[in-house]
Structure formats: structure tokens, C-alpha cells
Amino acid sequence: MGEKDHLKIKIGNRLIGSGEPAYLIAEMSANHAGSIERAKEIIHAAKESGADCIKIQTYTPDTLTIDCHNKYFQVNNGTWEGENLYSLYGKAYTPWEWQPQLKAEADKVGIDFLSTPFDNTAVDFLEDMGLEFYKIASFEMIDLPLVEYVASKGKPIIMSTGMATLEEIREAVETVYHTGNRQLVLLKCSSAYPADPAQMYLRTITDMQKRFDLPIGLSDHSMGSMSAVTAVALGASVIEKHFCLSREIENPDASFSMTPEEYKQMVQDIRNVEAALGTPTYGVEKQEESSRVFRRSIFAVKDIPAGAELTEENIRIIRPGYGIKPKYWKDVLGMRTDHAMERGTPITFDALEKGSILFLTNNTNTDGLYRWLKEQGEQVYRVENKVTAQMIAQMKPSLMISFNYRHMIPQEVLELMPGRVINLHTSYLPYNRGSSPNFFSFLEDTPKGVTIHLMSAGLDEGDILCQRELHFDEEKETFASTYEALLQEIEKLFRENWQQIREGSILPVKQAGPVTYHRMKDLDAIREKVDFDWNMKIGDFKRAYEKAMRKDENS
């Protein structure tokens, strides 16, 4: 792979990425074994062993989980078998009062200082310390609210991807990008302690480079240096290895950590490289199956009565992972329970109130209609994430309303709710299916209006419940003003017909007449030819577009 600036990030004066030397991180973790003096000694040893960076972790047991001793919070196998999560994290954490001193020690010896925050308070603490970049752990990668908060600081991020599916990695990357932060490195990781080199699947590193167009590295929990050296040979830009003074010093992480002598030999250890190569693989590996349950999910942190509203006071995103994924956090808040739940119980979709209306949307311009449904006394919940068949089968909603919702609704969901999934569309169907219907209705002089229809497997192809045609003066109106009028009209049409929609008493009518369909790339192609602004008068834009098309024909 050639050198590309967009495949690099900068930490201090150091470039990390394609064409640059691998950046070597020594992970202290719990190897200080409760001694700040030993922690400082590890920093010196890491520098002398050739590490570019020393890394610690910033958490307390209370920021990772809750003090609960039921079955969900016990480790049943692996290196920490028999431990309770809360007590294990109490043994392993690095006291926060040490951390400014450790950073100062790292600055003194000339080694970069990095930490992994596990909640927003840790991020704020590290910001006050002046941390220049952040690490996100594999288990926290699916905590998208935390990822977003870290990314909002505008600093480089190194993020591990152990146990992650391709979709989960994409969600995390998109969350970072959404904040405007593009300074990101992804690490292939096997979240087993220690990891088996035969299950490292290191060829995934090159596959990730192609898929994400980002610097890729390896967070290596295997013994020895073979996997790390192989990863560098495959193009890894960052290597992270646990580092200790001696594995004889008892602590939760010593057994799979590398000693200074071993660390020094890491870059020379190229034997048996082929044995560590695998094929591209994503998701939970066999050796990770027991670790998956310790990812974060949504749990009850207080006793919750039946029918009570879920709030930030009675539920939290914590380890372990028996509950709903953190990406559904905003969706779950405000929902009600189907039955009483004890503290320490995972929140599942099956535990939520049955027979509700799900209002699917990703845009604030739908808030008015959502509030109106609430005011009518409807049991309605806003959902921004993609609905799944499992979610719908467990929640058993009575109706789903899609309004400016960016996700395709899976066929299996439609099959679970035949005739009970409707879409509010700002065009006069069957004209202008797909992207930007308002824009293309003017450009192609097709009818304008709004339609409420049943959802089907084809995009905007379902039977019509009700619709209304509108007319606009193109010399006075803009694209923005007409879209606002369409939004108001479709809300009005919905309110007028709500009772019949709710009862299912409207006889659906099949779409008939000419069909037009557009994709986002069609809009992008037009914008390349003509300067566009949503506040332009429609007539002015159409004349500019026609002029540009005549110019193309003549050339």
C-alpha cells in the first residue's frame, strides 16, 4: 500500500500510519500491583525497552459496573474464573490520584502517555490532565455514547475491535466521524487472555485497511512476539502489548504480559510468522465466546416496578452484556417495563411494555407529530436505530410509523406485522420514489404531494392509505419552503386519518400510474453541474439546470 496522508494521524511530532514505523504501546494495566513506585518503574522500563508509549486505564469499579453478586456478575471461566466483576476491577484499577504523577514521569523520561477512559467522568479527568490522545477498549467500542463523547474532544483515537462485527465497527467509526473527528486508528484484537495465535486471524488487518481506509494495528494478547511481528509485516501501524516488570509479581494481568527483555526482542522475532496468518474474520471468535458476555449492555441499577418508566436513574450502560446493546440507549429511555425488575437484571426487549406504537425516525422535524401522538394518550415510543425481527417479536408493537427514517425495514419485520407498518412520504406516489422526492418532482414536472402508505419489500411501493396533491408557484417558492409545506401537509393528513389508520379500517389502494425512482447519486450528479441551495427559488434553479444541460449537449 502506497503512502497516503489520509492513512495517517499525528500524535505530538510523530506520524502514525502508512509508510511510518510501527508505533509501539506498552500497556501497564494492573501490573503496578497497587504500587505507584512500581508504576513509575514500569514507565522507565518501557522507555528503555523501546516502547513509544506507556498506556494506563482510567476507571473505578463503579464506572465499569455495579456492586452486585448475582449470576450475571460472576466470571465463570478463563484467567479470572471465580471472580466477581466489581471486586476484580477493584484489584486492577489505577488510582486516579496517581495518574497526573505518572504522566509527569512519562514526560520526564520522554515516552508518550496514553489512557483508556471507561466513562464520561474519566474523559473529563483526562482532559484536565492534558491528555493528547485516547484509547478505546474493545469492550467499550459498542458503547456509542461514550465513543461519541471521547471523539467530541477532537483528539486522535486508537480503538480496539475485539469481538466486533463489521456492522459494529462501522457504527463506531461513523460515530467518531459524526463529531467531525477523523483522527482514528483501528486495532485488530482477540479479546481472550491470553490469546491463541492460531485464532488471531491476522489477515483481517489487510482486509480492514481496504474496508475502512484507516491506519490499522494490532492489540496483541498472545504470548511472545510472533503475532506482533507478523502484524507489522502485514502493514500494522500500531502494536499494543501488555507490559510488566516480572510475571512473578501477582496481579490480574501478569500472566499474559510481556517482560522488558521480551519486549526488546519483539521487533526481531520473525520466526514462525506464517503460523500466525489467518483469513479475514469478524464477529465473535471461538476463543472470545466466554468474553462476549462482559461487553456493555443496558441493566437495571435499581428495583423497577411493573409499568415504570425507564430513566437514567434506574438503568445504565454497564458490563456485563446480557441486556440490550448500548446503541439502543436513547430508544429505550422513556419506555415502560412489562413486569417488575430487580436491581442487577438485564433490560431486554422482552421486558418492555407490549402493544406500543413505535415511531421510527432520525430527524427532529418529526418531533411535532410525535408529541401530538403523545398528547392523544397513545403509548408511543421514538426509535432511531434499526429495528430487528427479534426486537419486534419480543416487544409485540401494535403499529409502526416510519417518518424520515433512514434505515430499511427488514422483510422479516414486515412479515411479523403485515399491514401494520406505515410510511409517511413527502411525494405523490407512485411518482418520485427513493431519495429527495420533493426536489425531483419540480425538476421533472411530476405531481407534488404527500402520501401515507403501507410498507412493503420494495422501496416506497406499498399500497396507499391516503394521499393529497399540492400545487406551488415555482417563481415564489424555494425548495426549502415547499418541503416545509409538505411536512405540514403530511402531518395534517395523518391527524385527519389517524383513527382509521389506528383501527386499520382504511381500504388500501394499489399504486397505479407512471413510476419514477431516484437515488442520492442522481442528486449529486445534478449538483456537480449546477450550484444548488435549498433556499433558491425553484424557477431560478430550473433555468440554470436547463442552461447547463444545453451546454453539455453542445459540447
TrEMBL record:
Keyword field contains Membrane: no
Top-level division of the source organism's lineage: Bacteria
SMART domains: SAF
Top EC class, one word: transferase
Domain AFP-like: 297-355
Pfam families: Formyl_trans_N (PF00551), NeuB (PF03102), SAF (PF08666)
Sample GO molecular function, one term: N-acylneuraminate-9-phosphate synthase activity
Keywords linked to the UniProt accession: Transferase
EC number: 2.5.1.97
Any single GO BP term: carbohydrate biosynthetic process
Record bears the keyword Transferase: yes
The name this protein goes by in its record: Pseudaminic acid synthase
Organism of this sequence: Simiaoa sunii
Gene that encodes it: pseI
